[in-house]
Design goal:
The protein is 58% helix and 0% strand. By secondary structure, it is mainly alpha-helical. The protein has a domain of 57 residues. The chain is elongated and about 60 Å long.
Amino acid sequence: MTSAAEPTGGSEAPEPAQGPRRGGTPADKGNLALDAAIADLERAAERLRAGDLDHEDAAKLVEDCAELAARVGGELDRAARAAAADPATSGQESLL
């Protein structure tokens, strides 16, 4: 069980915010991880809006969300660089 100040993101993966995706490619797994992170951030935002957290728990939750957002941003940057470096993964086929 997570504490009041931690978003769920440990060993138990929450249901993706957009529903389950099909397939088993690395991109699909990355999308599932992104969906889980989005769901964690949405739940944290709901808890913060509810206003029932004490100041310390709210501050810890905001800090955890910032760390999660930084990790997700880094993963998205890496994925974008990898896609740009590999034309086969960009979805565009060469005409020549």
